[in-house]
Amino acid sequence: MKTSLPPAICAALLVAVPAAGHHSGTMFDDDKTVTVEGVVKEFQYTNPHSWLLVDVPGADGKVTTWGFEAEGPTTLMMRQVRRSDFTPGTRVTITGHPMKDGRPAAAWVKAVRADGKQFYPRGQAAAEP
């Protein structure tokens, strides 16, 4: 017996399968956290994921740009994280789950600006490491 799926279901499956794969966080080590201090270089407030780029000076004076991944703008706005909160030059201490491969990037968990204001892009209950 031959059956076929309605076109709408086929289309939904074609969209859903790649989207499920896209939202994988397997590149981050959720069992570890890293905290760095630096200055905001850029806040890429974009879909599907935003990135906060922070210039972090090392002990030798060399600056490394760290990338901290967060959700898209709609989710960030619901969590009270606005683009204007992190303009270039803003001093920040930021914590995240680091990349497993050691690259200078992490899944953003918490950020504290120099003025003491705290930001939790993934929600405060799960944010405290």
Molecular structure report:
- The chain has about 130 residues and is an alpha+beta fold.
- The chain has one domain: Nucleic acid-binding proteins (OB fold (Dihydrolipoamide Acetyltransferase, E2P), Beta Barrel).
- About 15% of the residues lie in helices and about 35% in strands.
- The protein contains 2 helices and 6 strands.
- A 5-stranded mixed beta barrel has the order 1-2-3-5-4.
- A hairpin with a 4-residue loop joins strand 5 and strand 6.
- The longest helix has 16 residues.
- The protein is globular.
- The protein starts with 6 loop residues before the first helix and ends in a 10-residue tail after the last strand.
CATH-assigned homologous superfamily: Nucleic acid-binding proteins
Strand content: 35-45%
Number of helices: 2
Strand order of the largest sheet: 1-2-3-5-4
Number of strands: 6
- How many whole angstroms does the radius of gyration measure? 18 Å
The averaged pLDDT comes out at 85
The name of the CATH architecture is Beta Barrel
Shape: globular
Q: State the name of the first-level CATH class.
A: Mainly Beta
Using the coordinates shown, work out and report the CATH topology. Answer: OB fold (Dihydrolipoamide Acetyltransferase, E2P)
Q: Which structural category do the helix and sheet elements fall into?
A: alpha+beta
Number of structural domains: 1
Order of helices and strands: HEEEHEEE
- Helix content percent band: 10-25%
Largest sheet: 5 strands, mixed, barrel
Q: What's the end-to-end separation, in Å?
A: 55 Å
Low-confidence stretches: 8-22
